[in-house]
Amino acid sequence: MSGRFAGRRAVVTGGASGIGAATARRLAAEGAEVLVVDVAAESAAEASETMPEIVHLRGDVSAEETWERIAAWGRVDVLVSNAAVVEVAPAHETSLESWNRQLGVGLTAAFLGARRLLPPMAATGGAVVITSSVHAVVGLPGHPAYAAAKGGLTALTRQLAVEYGPAVRVNCVLPGPVMTPAWDRVDERGRAGSVRATVLGRFGAPEEVAAVIAFLASDEASFVTGACLTADGGWSIVKDSA
Ligand SMILES: NC(=O)c1ccc[n+]([C@@H]2O[C@H](COP(=O)([O-])OP(=O)(O)OC[C@H]3O[C@@H](n4cnc5c(N)ncnc54)[C@H](O)[C@@H]3O)[C@@H](O)[C@H]2O)c1
């Protein structure tokens, strides 16, 4: 299996932690040169000591100028738009700043990345994978901005797939509960509830989502574009009506 990304250059946003970090490691292990873009420079620096194929750029992906710096890195064959911010509150307690922050990092950043990187990628060929969420298709209290961003990403995926195919394939992954630092703010009760809501009876590991992202980014998914692939341990197919 090694070598699917030999000679390829990949950008992973939000790659200093969790699913993004696992994806950067997976792509690098399979031969890619990887540029991780993240606001968290300190964790990025730690990671870079362990894998020389991964380089790090400190930057806010919701800012246009960050994408100019990413483009300056050179040719990009694989773009993984993965960074997100979640701030839990019902709509009436969500400030406009919070809404804009969550939409900015969680949706606009994917647009900015596509706008800057897809025209050159269309000339050479490539693949985009966007990290959406089960929140795109299931309502959970306290996530109006996050869910709007994630739903927007599924529509954006289809749109970009149509506009930049056949040279560029664009797909997204919808993870369910995956044990990453994003869960630090959730107490034991909340975690247990999420695990109970899966068919597989456990959290996913970041590496299990990274494997799906790597598949979608690889030539093995050569006839897959505009797809949203759920990786949630069965979380979204069960409804307990007892
Ligand atoms: N963990 C889950 O259960 C789960 C479930 C569904 C979807 N997701 C999605 O998976 C993706 C990764 O989540 P995770 O759980 O690995 O989270 P995480 O918190 O471990 O990692 C997110 C990373 O994004 C970075 N980031 C935040 N704002 C940024 C910005 N403005 N610019 C650049 N980087 C920024 C953070 O510094 C962090 O390193 C997100 O899109 C998230 O919505 C996660």
UniProtKB/TrEMBL annotation:
PROSITE patterns: ADH_SHORT
Signal peptide (from-to): none
One GO MF term attached to the UniProt entry: oxidoreductase activity
Domain annotation Ketoreductase: ranges: 8-189
UniProt keyword annotations, A-Z: NAD, Oxidoreductase
Pfam families the record matches: adh_short_C2
Similarity comment: Belongs to the short-chain dehydrogenases/reductases (SDR) family.
Alphabetical list of PANTHER family matching this protein: DEHYDROGENASES, SHORT CHAIN, ESTRADIOL 17-BETA-DEHYDROGENASE 8-RELATED
Name by which UniProt lists this protein: SDR family oxidoreductase
